[in-house]
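Input record (one chain):
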Amino acid sequence: MKTLSKLLLSASLVLGAAAATLPASAQQPAAPPAERPIKPASPAAIGYAKEILQLKNANAMYANAIPNMVQRVKDSLLSSNLNYQKDLNEVAVVVAQANAGRDKEIGEQMAKIYASDFTEAELKDLAAFYKSPLGQKLLQMEPQSISASVNYMQQWAQQFAEQVNGQFRAEMRKRGKEI
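The corresponding structure, as predicted from the sequence alone:
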């Protein structure tokens, strides 16, 4: 029963998140992010985009990208090469050091994406907004608001899954089948 609830919860959250990100009038599915063309942008637009991302503390999203990836690959290799644990641990340090700073590539690409999606004037206005008192409040409160919203969605989905499960059981009982 708990597994069914978790499955329903996960499915509903994924579907809900997917539906929420699509405009109602969308006729064609968007290209996957990796295939999405990025329009060239002026250095000023990219500069504003970087400023916005810095104000939004976007680098926190990928701050541990390098160590996490090194750890994931090491764990994967370790699962099929248990005899090499000591060596893999040592190599992980070397690989992490060799790739230190590569996470900045993510920030650069994010800035180019923003600069592709917004005009230079829009980015300038957004940067000014995020520096305003209301923009600062948004930056401060948004993580809490999003977290509270996600918590609510999870609770709602759990309750709804239990209701739907009960409805299934009641309908099956009407048919003389106990599940």
